[in-house]
Amino acid sequence: MTPGPTPPPPAPVGASPQRLLGGYRIGRVLGKGGLGEVYEATAPDGRTVALKVFRLGDDELGLSAAAFEREANLGQRLQHPDIVRVLDSGSAGGYAFLALEFVPGHDLRRHAGRGQLLPPAQALRTAERVARALAAAHAIGIVHRDIKPGNVLVHAPTDTVKVTDFGLARLGETFRSRTGIVAGTPGYMAPEQLAEGVVGPHSDLYALGVLLFELLTGRLPFEAASLGAMLQQVAQQTAPRLTDHRPGLPPAVAPALADLVAELLDRRIDHRPADATAVADRLARLQAVLAADRPTPGAGPKSRA
Prior knowledge:
There is one protein chain. The protein has 2 domains: about 20-100, Phosphorylase Kinase, domain 1, CATH 3.30.200.20; about 105-295, Transferase(Phosphotransferase) domain 1 (Transferase(Phosphotransferase), domain 1), CATH 1.10.510. It is about 35% helix and about 15% strand. The chain contains 9 helices and 9 strands. It has helices spanning about 65-75, 120-140, 170-180, 190-195, 200-215, 225-235, 240-245, 255-265, 275-295, and strands at about 20, 25-30, 35-40, 50-55, 85-90, 95-100, 105, 150-155, 160-165. The strands form 2 sheets. It has a 6-stranded antiparallel β-sheet with strand order 1-2-3-4-6-5, with helices on one face. The longest helix is centred in the middle third of the chain and has 20 residues, at about 120-140.
C-alpha cells in the first residue's frame, strides 16, 4: 500500500510564518520548550493566541493523540485569573497543539538574576499569586510539576501574573514514563520528584520555594558544577538560609520570610507548609508588614522604642 502524503509540519524556528495548523495561522516564534515550540498565532475567529505545538508519535516522544487530548483537557478545567487559560486543543498532520491565552509581557527569567531582581514587595506579591494559582489547581487534583521562572508570565502595566503550562502537567509525566526521561527542571524539582517518588502538591510547594529564593537572591538554593552533584545536594543537604544570600532584606520581614522559604525547601514532605493557600496567606501577611513599615513621604523615621 502506498502511504498517503505527509502534511507539512508547522513553521519551524526561524522559518517563514503564516503556516496553518488546525485552522490556526502560525506567526512568529515565542519560545521553545522540552516538548515543542510556542508560536504567536491567529485563531479562526481572529483572536491572537499562543499556540504550543508538539510532534506526535510513540516512536519519538512517546505521545499519542489520545493521551494528549485527555491530558490537555485538564488545562481547560482550570479557571483562575492567575492561570493562563487553555482555549482549545487538537491534533492535525502528526502534530498536537494547545491554543493558549496570549499574555503580553515576559516570563520571570528576566527577574531571576542578580542586578535584575524585583523589589521585595513585588517579589512577594508575585509569589503569592503563583501560590493562589497552585491552590486552585490542587483543589481539583492537578499538580503542575514544573514551577519555574520560565512558566510564570508577568506584565507590570496590567498587573498581570499568570502561571502557564498547567495543561501539560500530567502530559509531561506521560512523556517521562514512556521515555525514561525525567519530566521537569532539575533545579526546581523536589527530592521526591527527582527520586521518582510520589509527586503531589507538596512537590509544587518545594518548587515555589526555589522560585521565591531565586527571585530574592538571583541564584538557586543548590548550585553545583555538575547535575549529579546538584542532585546529591538536593537529596542530602539542608537548603541555605535565604538571608545568607540576601542580607539586605527589610528587617521587618526578613526572619519570617527566611523561615517560610526554609519550610518550603525542607527535604521532608511533612515539614513543608500544609497547602498553597497557607503559603499565599503568609506571603500576604508579610506584604502587609512591609507596607506598614514603609515610611510615609515627608515623615521622619519611625520610632523603634
